[in-house]
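Late entry, written up from scratch paper. The run itself happened at the end of the previous shift, but nothing got recorded in the book at the time, so transcribing now.
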Amino acid sequence: MSKSTISTYQLFEMFPDQETARVYLEGRLWPNGVKCPVCGIGDRITARKGGYYRCNQCKEDFTVRTGTIFERSHVPLHKWVYAMYLLVTARKGISSMQLAKEIGITQKSAWFVLQRLREACGDNLSVLRGIVEVDEMFVGGKESNKHADKRAPKGSRGGASNKVPVLGMRERGGKTKAMPVSGTSTRVLGNAIHENVEMGSTIMSDEHPAYRHLDGDFQHETVNHKQHEYVRGNVHTNGIESVWAVMKRGLHGVYHHASEKHLHRYVDEFTFRLNEGNVSRHTLDRLESFVVNVAGKRLTYKALIG
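Output as recorded:
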């Protein structure tokens, strides 16, 4: 077995019950000692039984779940850890049906757990720089699977008018960022690129007209896919295309359907796994990268379905 990974059996040995998972999560979320999630002070804390703490500053009781995606969840913490392990190691994701069988909860609860985990994958504030490949894909089901009256007219861009566009940006040798956008106009794509890519960077794109305006603020190189040009020296978009390949296989083959309402969370999940899930990193390092993101990301069921 690779030295950079651990098996499911080894994970169960490390976290056999809720108590071992609680100690692990406290050590990662409070590396400098217990800190109150309400007032942020950690020098007037009284420990109580069962992982409960009392802040003598603001008089609040709390646990490691408070203020995180775990808050008010009845799912034991060691099952949460296993769910995180599956999410960071399953290259194409894991369905709620499969997760329900793996950790012994209902499919409805597993769906809620996964949506909370995806919520923790968001808020990537990094700015891309250097050579950045840019492209868009469309999510919304295959035209061949739709009823005839709902299919896009022949000759349209793969039925793009009936789908949700997702813009992707991949820094060569670096991070990937992607997000659903309201359209593929010059204004929409341009604003997203300017917000996420450092000025003066080199943009690699296809011949889509919406990218033409980038020439003033970035070094801009294009390949003409319509003319069957995919690589010209160092100019190509193969990196971001490989991101779409994995994402489409996950959305179609594992999840089958992602509604427009929740699509941004699915996209965040795939980009997080690409950014933090490099197999050269040890599984526990990847797991820890996920754990540090769960604070401040509480998601209630009412907010999720509302």
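The longest helix spans residues 238-255.
(Scratch paper discarded after transcription.)
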